[in-house]
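Lab notebook, page 48
Experiment: co-folding of the full assembly
Goal: obtain a model of how the components sit together before planning crosslinking
Operator: M.T.
Materials (sequences as entered):
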Amino acid sequence: MPTETIQQKRHFNSDTFVLATINVLLVIICIVTLYPLIIVLSNSVSDPVAILEGRVRFLPVGFSLESYRKVLENKDIVRSFFNSLRYTLIGTFCNVVMTILAAYPLSRKDLVGRNVLMLGITFTMFFSGGMIPTFLVVRKLKMMNTMWAIIVPGVISTYNLIITRTFFQTNIPSELQDAALIDGCSNTKFLVQIVLPLSTTIIVIISMFYAVGHWNAYFGPILYFTRKAKYPLQVILRDIVMSAHAADMTASDAVLSTRFFEIERIKYATIIIASLPMIIVYPFVMKYFEKGVMMGAIKG
Amino acid sequence: MKKEQCPSRTRMDLHALGKHNKIKSILRNYDLYLMLIPVIAFYIIFKYMPMYGIQIAFRDYNPGLGFLKSKWVGMAHFKRFFSSFRFTRMIRNTIMINVYQILFQFPIPIIFAIIVNEVRKKKFKAFVLNVTYVPHFLSTVVLVALITTVVHPDYGIINQIMMFFGKSPIRFMEEAVWFKPLYIISGIWQSTGWSSLIYLGALAGIDPVLYEAAQVDGASKLQQIFKITIPCIIPTIMIMLILKIGGIMNLGVDKVLLMQNDLNIYSSDVIPVYVYKTGIREGYFDYATAIGLFNNLINFFLLLGANRLSRKLFDSSLW
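Observation: model returned without errors.
Model output:
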């Protein structure tokens, strides 16, 4: 049948064309995605004069690690880095414990009052008191300028609670639970010894969500911290970027412009340091994440 | 035995239990309730207390007197806000940013997921995905620093390209007309890869038999995409769209706050940032709460509306 073969051929051609276009498009997307990251990395090891003259377009010009040395000498940056680390570790730990404490009981079909509790919890996703009343509650509890101000008010993210609960419901066989409970195993013991080991996927995923949130947090800290000693790295970075911008606007005389060079120098190195921990951690976590998506644990 | 213990629409298995058994079940599962104590305390203190505190939107708030005892002023704060010259400007900006987001930022991850899904080389696919996820992990502060670097009037690549073509450089960060495009484009850059995950998950769930049947019938790739792929992920798209519409007034504070300056305020003035600036920085707690409440209410009703509409039109909804 000649007509049939022609039709097949046409489809074959149009399909190859479609696939080729897709591949080219994806390569362009990758370049566009990576470019800002590469330029910042290059700037962080380049000579500031070359940056300002626009000579760093892709690869570093006048390679030196001077900027990183300057960053390590800067007390504000070092202190805030360790602040961020502390907030992230302690915060994520509290988040995960509280989320499991909420998700496990609520995943149990035999929990009396479950629907009322879920209704009360889900409602907070759609309506909230808002920024100011929450701020006033935190202030009333005397949490201002303490680490708890940025950890406790968001210790459970309802979204993470719901995906964890769904995971427990779909991945812990109810026969297993019935058998264990009939044998006299307590709920707590069942949770710790059976449910948690079976749930590493979801625990890694929510840990990552929470940890990224803590590491990148900027608004919470400026809301609740008034002392510089408490600032996390992101807030210090914001200050550096702002002062670079301010110096840029007035960089006419020589004194200011040397200061400007100093700021430009540390700006890019700080951006790298502020981003690196999450970028390093995420490929390890990604494996779990894809598994979670495929298991249908994570939905809109 | 109180009635509160048995909610009106409980599951069948709870109904099957008598009231007597219900108490027995509570006693047997006492440790589950112990686990829930800190959780309930959290929701009451940090979610429902602030909701209770919303009443200061109608009061002349005095920190010494607290939420309940401050003087009642009715709608005064709302009236002041509605008659402010910034009111229409803020509403317009908020709505326009969201319209642009729905038009551009929302469909791109869907298209991206469909495209990536067609790639047959596993390694290339994994590479593309891993690269596009990275921006999601950057903080807003870093994102804004990246924007300023790329659009820098002296050395940013955009302006260098423009100068190459003989155009004069633009100070993107300081021009009101450029605020929204920068906001949207950087949003697309940051979120496309990550947002596509949900759609990729939905695409992975499509039965391959459908494609095989289509291939046997001689359907081309494009036909397969339009006749199989897209219809299969419509429910996911609708749910994401409802959530997006429900969050229209819910712009994150951070990014606008970081990008805003006196020169672009005309198009970067939005409610959440205004709430922060008048409430926290200037200390008008009551007035800022009123604005925040106005914002939240609009959000809440938009979500209800979008959900109802979607249930009618597409038979898919959040609840």
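Interpretation: Chain A touches chain B through 99 residues (CB under 8 Å).
Next step: discuss with group before ordering constructs.
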